[in-house]
Design a protein that fits this description.
The protein is mainly alpha-helical. It has helices at 3-10, 14-33, 38-45, 49-69.
Amino acid sequence: ISVTTVIKYTAIEREEYESRAKERRLKAYTMRSNGFSLDEIASELGCSYNAAAALIKRYKHIDIKKVSME
């Protein structure tokens, strides 16, 4: 098997990647808004405490700004 074949069958399209990332950020933000701790969010999303905090921060800086600009 060549490297190109592996990439072709395992890589996802950029739009799908961005869509999944946006859903993860929204889920983390929603859970935090509903009173969940960062440890609980990290456990639910399968990431570290710091990654959960970063998802929430990115949601505030990326997704909320996009809505207010539209």
